[in-house]
């Protein structure tokens, strides 16, 4: 990873490989970075003259504007990029398996394996191969076996694990100033040398004491562990939110009081309609699967509960909407504000909004959805997948997509806030109220609204984790 060399990245439809490598290019002008993807349309988007990038991520466009064409390149020529590179990041998707052994739990390593085989087949010189995708423990070992069994004379492959900890919506800030960079390697001399090479890339902008070097398997497990523990915090606070609603306590106050303990800390304790995103559920299920295959059923069961609590939170929320609307929403009109799994992203993977809308459709309600960043086509696709018993035509009879929050709320009986977009804080609630069917309900799944103010206008308000 020294001057003039290239870092290609296998980049399947994921939201992290692109931003990560773009930031490496920005921070290391002496290193040529090539992001490769088999998907021509995606590469064209990365290269588009008006910077219509394939993913929405605040600050990303600015990074690409500065580095593209200088030392950051986007290409579909995977083989050429492999041949020219010293260091290769494999950051392909590792979705949960849909069929076969481990279906519903284990990671589908098909993309990792094909990327690895391609590197072995094409490489004509030694490479450091960096596993960036989140993978089950010991995947690096499989990659190493494939590479070693297929390499040409004179080619050496060193494998590193370098999991990514950025969160969507704050990716660029997280990459500029990471809490830590984690690099796992074999504890051999060659492994340590490869590790030092990658650490040298990050050292261009990350303080040395934040670059942690560990064993290969610790690194792989740490990634799953970090996500599992973050998700567990949310499930814990969400479990408490149910107690708050039943007792009249206020989850904000509880989270604040608990988080004040410096051992717990205040972050990531925000009650919600449930966590979403492509990582938490998938990584926990991976951990569950791993625990089961290691014959640790109690450990598996412990982590499985984090996902189950999340499912419970989502269904509890849908049920509270139905209960509050006089036990039926059949034929009623409901606005759902937000469809992304969190604010500042257009990503809808595992978004709790999908589950909520599915539940409303099952009750035969009419739903109008508004999200500032999610494509219409994505919403139709997500709902089709979530409601396999309904045709798209049937779904479209019940669902409308609006182009503003105000439009979405017109003449509705209830408004559901599913994503904490900043613009929903600035809604003119009086105007919304005037245009709604009465009694007008607001269900806040994101602790976003000023409930007292809304009540003064006349709304009936229900907020996650508040007993009133
Ligand atoms: C998560 C981790 O935070 C990253 O560190 C990790 O790198 C990433 O997964 C990954 O493995 O790729 P991400 O899923 O992008 O990042 O977003 P988060 O900010 O973690 O939010 C996940 C979900 O939890 C969202 O639906 C969010 O609304 C919800 N959440 C988060 C809460 O309900 N309450 C909170 O206090 C925080």
Automatic annotation (TrEMBL):
The name this protein goes by in its record: UDP-glucose 6-dehydrogenase
Family assignment from sequence similarity: Belongs to the UDP-glucose/GDP-mannose dehydrogenase family.
Catalysed conversion reaction: UDP-alpha-D-glucose + 2 NAD(+) + H2O = UDP-alpha-D-glucuronate + 2 NADH + 3 H(+)
One example of a Gene Ontology biological process annotation: glycosaminoglycan biosynthetic process
UDP-glucose/GDP-mannose dehydrogenase C-terminal domain segment(s): 335-451
Organism: Hermanssonia centrifuga
Entry EC no(s): 1.1.1.22
PANTHER family: UDP-GLUCOSE 6-DEHYDROGENASE, UDP-GLUCOSE DEHYDROGENASE/UDP-MANNAC DEHYDROGENASE
InterPro entries to which the protein is assigned, alphabetical: 6-PGluconate_DH-like_C_sf, NAD(P)-bd_dom_sf, UDP-Glc/GDP-Man, UDP-Glc/GDP-Man_DH_C, UDP-Glc/GDP-Man_DH_C_sf, UDP-Glc/GDP-Man_DH_dimer, UDP-Glc/GDP-Man_DH_N, UDPglc_DH_euk
The organism's place on the tree of life at top rank: Eukaryota
GO molecular function, one term: UDP-glucose 6-dehydrogenase activity
GO cellular component: nucleus
Keywords per UniProt: NAD, Oxidoreductase
UniProt keyword NAD, yes or no: yes
Binding site for NAD(+): 37, 42, 92-96, 133-134, 168, 279-282, 349
């Amino acid at each position: 990873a020294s001057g003039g060399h290239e870092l290609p990245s296998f980049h399947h439809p994921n939201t992290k490989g692109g931003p990560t490598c773009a930031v490496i290019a920005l921070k290391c002008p002496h290193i040529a970075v090539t992001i490769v993807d088999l998907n021509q349309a995606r590469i064209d988007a990365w290269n588009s003259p008006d910077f219509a990038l394939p993913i929405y991520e605040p600050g990303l466009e600015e990074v690409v504007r500065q580095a593209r064409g200088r030392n950051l390149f986007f290409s579909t020529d995977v083989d050429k990029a492999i041949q020219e590179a010293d260091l290769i990041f494999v950051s392909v998707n590792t979705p949960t398996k849909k069929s076969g052994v481990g279906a519903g739990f284990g990671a589908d390593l098909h993309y990792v394996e094909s990327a690895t085989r391609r590197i072995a087949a094409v490489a004509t010189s030694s490479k450091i191969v960096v596993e960036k995708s989140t993978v089950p423990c010991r995947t690096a070992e499989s990659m190493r076996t494939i590479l070693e069994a297929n390499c040409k004379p004179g080619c050496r492959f060193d494998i590193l694990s370098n999991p990514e900890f950025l969160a969507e919506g704050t990716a660029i800030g997280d990459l500029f100033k990471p809490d830590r960079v984690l690099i796992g390697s074999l504890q051999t001399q060659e492994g340590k040398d490869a590790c030092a090479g990658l650490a040298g890339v990050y050292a261009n902008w990350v303080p040395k004491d934040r670059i942690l070097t560990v064993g290969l398997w610790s690194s792989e497990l740490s990634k799953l562990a970090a996500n599992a523990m973050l998700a567990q915090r949310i499930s814990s606070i969400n479990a408490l939110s149910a107690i708050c609603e039943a007792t009249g306590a206020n989850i904000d106050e509880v989270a604040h009081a608990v988080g004040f303990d410096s051992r717990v800390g205040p972050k990531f304790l925000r009650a919600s309609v449930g966590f979403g995103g492509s990582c938490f559920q998938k990584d926990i299920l991976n951990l569950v699967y791993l625990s089961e295959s290691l014959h640790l059923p109690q450990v598996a069961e412990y982590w499985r509960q984090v996902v189950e609590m999340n499912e419970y939170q989502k269904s509890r929320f849908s049920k509270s909407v139905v209960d509050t609307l006089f036990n039926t929403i059949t034929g009623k009109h409901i606005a759902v504000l937000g469809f992304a799994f969190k604010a500042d992203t257009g990503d809808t993977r595992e978004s709790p909004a999908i589950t909520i809308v599915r539940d409303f459709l099952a009750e035969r309600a009419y739903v109008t959805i508004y999200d500032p960043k999610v494509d219409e086509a994505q919403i139709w696709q997500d709902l089709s997948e979530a409601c396999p018993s309904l045709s798209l035509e049937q779904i479209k009879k019940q669902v409308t997509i609006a182009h503003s929050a105000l439009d979405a709320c017109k003449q509705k009986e209830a408004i559901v806030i599913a994503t904490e977009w900043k613009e929903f804080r600035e809604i003119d609630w009086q105007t919304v109220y005037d245009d709604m069917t009465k009694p007008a309900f607001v269900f806040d799944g994101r602790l976003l609204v000023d409930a007292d103010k809304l009540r003064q206008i006349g709304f009936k308000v229900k907020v996650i984790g508040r007993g009133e």
